[in-house]
Amino acid sequence: MAVALVGLPGAGKSAVGRRLAQRLQFPFIDSDDLIERRIGCSIRDYFEREGEQSFRDVEQTVIAELAASAEGIVSTGGGAVLREANRLQLHNHFHVIYLRSSPEDLFRRLRHDVKRPLLQVADPLGRLHELYAARDPLYRQAAHDVVETGRPSVAMLVNIIVMQLELAGVIPPGSRSDPTG
Ligand SMILES: Nc1ncnc2c1ncn2[C@@H]1O[C@H](COP(=O)(O)OP(=O)(O)O)[C@@H](O)[C@H]1O
Ligand SMILES: O=C(O)C1=C[C@@H](OP(=O)(O)O)[C@@H](O)[C@H](O)C1
């Protein structure tokens, strides 16, 4: 069982992925955590020191490794779909779910964020609009399913995704029962 979550920064890939993994009792892997362990510093510092392309090279290596053998729920970084090789690797190994969110929702969730280098600009909402326009088609290319994240809470999104995974035959029927009620 291998599921990957893709989407813009703030889409809920980590928050939803962690809860989904707990619910299904599968390992949770945050690919940005793996990258930070490899580079030995925060992604934000690495962007400043080495530049975005160098970060994308590390990201591509980590995605290729995950796509070779990872099991469980993987939360990817927002730019993981930028390279075609990554999109193909993700699509072929994982059941990929695109957590779609509007730039306005993302802005609301991330307005106090200081960790995401691409949003440390004078006009983060404008940047989110640009990222959405450039990437929405790429997330759709990589994904098997699209889930709207605008209204549902994280807990509701977990329920929606469990249902989709059952319908797609990725997990057996019956996984839907929520132990917390
Ligand atoms: N559907 C949602 N409703 C409300 N808040 C959310 C939702 N999804 C994510 N969040 C919140 O938005 C913030 C960013 O989510 P996160 O999971 O870190 O995004 P990503 O990993 O996709 O960048 C977190 O504080 C998270 O709790
Ligand atoms: O959108 C992007 O290009 C990036 C998103 C970040 O991950 P999140 O989507 O978890 O913020 C992280 O990988 C890096 O800062 C680049």
TrEMBL record:
UniProt-listed Gene3D superfamilies: P-loop containing nucleotide triphosphate hydrolases
Enzyme Commission designation: 2.7.1.71
Cofactor note text: Binds 1 Mg(2+) ion per subunit.
Amino acids binding ATP: G10, A11, G12, K13, S14, A15, R116
Annotated localization: Cytoplasm
Main location (coarse class): cytoplasm
Keyword match Cell cycle: no
Keywords: Amino-acid biosynthesis, Aromatic amino acid biosynthesis, ATP-binding, Cytoplasm, Kinase, Magnesium, Metal-binding, Nucleotide-binding, Transferase
SUPFAM superfamilies in alphabetical order: P-loop containing nucleoside triphosphate hydrolases
Pathway assignment: Metabolic intermediate biosynthesis; chorismate biosynthesis; chorismate from D-erythrose 4-phosphate and phosphoenolpyruvate: step 5/7
Presence of the UniProt keyword Amino-acid biosynthesis in the record: yes
Binding site for substrate: D32, R56, G78, R135
InterPro entries, A to Z: P-loop_NTPase (IPR027417), Shikimate/glucono_kinase (IPR031322), Shikimate_kinase/TSH1 (IPR000623), Shikimate_kinase_CS (IPR023000)
Entry's family note: Belongs to the shikimate kinase family.
Entry function: Catalyzes the specific phosphorylation of the 3-hydroxyl group of shikimic acid using ATP as a cosubstrate.
Official protein name in the record: Shikimate kinase
Organism: Variovorax soli
Gene: aroK
